[in-house]
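<instruction>
Derive structure tokens from the sequence

<record> Sequence and structure tokens follow
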Amino acid sequence: MTSMDGAIRKAGSGGTVLLAADLGSYKMTGSVNIWSGAGFADAVTIKGVNSKTGADQEAVIEGTRPATYAIGNASGNELFKFQKGAGNLTFENLQVNNTATVFRAAGDVANIVIEHVDADNVAHFFQTYVGSGNKSANVTNLTLRDVDVEGFSKGLIEIGYNSSNVLIEDVRGDSERQDGDEFAMGVHITGTAHDIVLRRVVMENATDTTGGKYWNGDGFATEKGVYNVLFEDTIARGNTDAGYDLKSKSTTLVRTLAEDNSRNYRIWGETAMIDAVGLNPDKRGGTLNGQNQVHIVKGASLTIEGGYFADAGSGTRVFLNEGGNVTVNDVQVVRAATGALKTGTIGGLTDAMVTLVDAVGKNSVGLVLPADPFTTTPAVTVPVSSTPVTTIPAVTLPVPQSTASGPGTSPASLPLEHTDAPATTTPPVVKFAGTVAADVFKGTIGQDQFLFDQTVNRGADKIVGFDNDDVLVMKTALADGNGDGIITFGRNGLLDLGAGGGALKLDMPKGLRLLGQNDDGFVYGNAAVRPNKSVEGKLTTADTLTGDAKDKTTNTFFFDTGLNLDLGKDKIINFGIKDFIISSSKLDGKNLLTIESHDGSFSFHDGLDLGAVTVSDLSSRAVTTLEFDGEQTSGGTHYYVYSLVGSTTAMPVIGA
């Protein structure tokens, strides 16, 4: 094991280092330093296999950390230490036990994938922490996938410095209440780390009672300099302080669940919550800790769109606003009649959103969801108060892309095995048609199409909740004076539908953009979705998009694949080393470091016939492989960025 770096060099670009997994465990007392890989075109894979059959099998590695955790114990050895310049490495099929830190970036490293790895009793699973002689430990293009850790004392994952393009997916960590290592956190994002996606990640039971009057222990935490972070279908449960403690900017939470934490959500920075769920906060100790569903710190900015907060504990305050700017919309609240709804101003909160129930004690365990939160559940049942109440709505919970359980997981665990299986059906589309009357349409969380025929629609209409994946379809084209495809609204904020077709009010500051024409009519989407200075492929047509023949400038080609509409068979020519392709869903439906073309083209959606694009370089040669540069979220849209393999041009910052 200690000769790992030499084995990586011998394997070479695209090679494999095999670890015998059936001949007993590896006993490690120190660390394995790795310097190699940065110059490889393709990643080297290090994985456990059966030495007789070659089949994948977890190689077991044992460290020096005492098997039973106790305060004051030696922390144990570090295992894999990435030194400056290491990269293009994939680790698979490992079981690591009793180790202080399983993986550590001690210098600047890039292109590392760690998947199908389990651990038991660690201080850290992955950590960026600068080593001797290095000024930083930035990690660029990191993927942690299908990881299950039982027992951690400090922080399961810590990403810091100026790290970027990080994907943490299908990861579960249970601290098992290892207490005493101070500031325990499941996932901790620090420094100026940015462009980070956490998807289907569960962090449970982070515990730290050593602070006396203040108990720490957070499921997820981000610091002040961090930005562009997306939490999607994640869970924080049973932590002694916050489920989500977020100081970062441009932070988005989609279908998150916080349950049984002292403060389910604690917001310090700039955050948007969409369809978030908070259940049964529980203050386990610490005189300075609170018991809140949502705690907003002074100076924070928070919007909550949709979602559900339920608890029958008399000690729970639903909203604690200490001076932040908070707006809620379409939120449902169930609370104890003897509890507290809010402190401070909560914009948009109305009595109609709140249901009162009888208290069941200071904290509640009566409002619970099924053990597996990734299933659809019927309406939540709660103790009924004598106070008149409204009907408690059914709760729709996060549903992951995969429902397969990883090895050794219980029914209460997050599914750990990820699949890129193609979609087999088109996502549901809700269609609304304008009439002669003055209509008010309210968009759904799905993909909506609003259809207007100017010869029929003559009212003053309004659309509420027009999302970035929704479209407006007109029977005849809207007036476009300068022919740039951007339709702006009048000073009164209304869109003139023309030809006596009435007017339409939309909350769309940058107006609409023409996406093209299909069988239903002329299709328009939110103009703010198109990245700045990008050229966009249109619907149904065979577009030819052209780059700079001398590759002097950066060209960006945008395909709004997330609309799930037919974009046609497009072509990009003169695609240079400085150029980028940006899409709003994964090309080919895959989340891979490189994407291979199929029959010479890149599919806009795996499993659905939504078009494709062929790409040729400056020499008119077909491009058969694209490099995945990373993901960004801006203005509520998730973007995926691709370039030529080997491109070193900095990924563009997508902003409205």
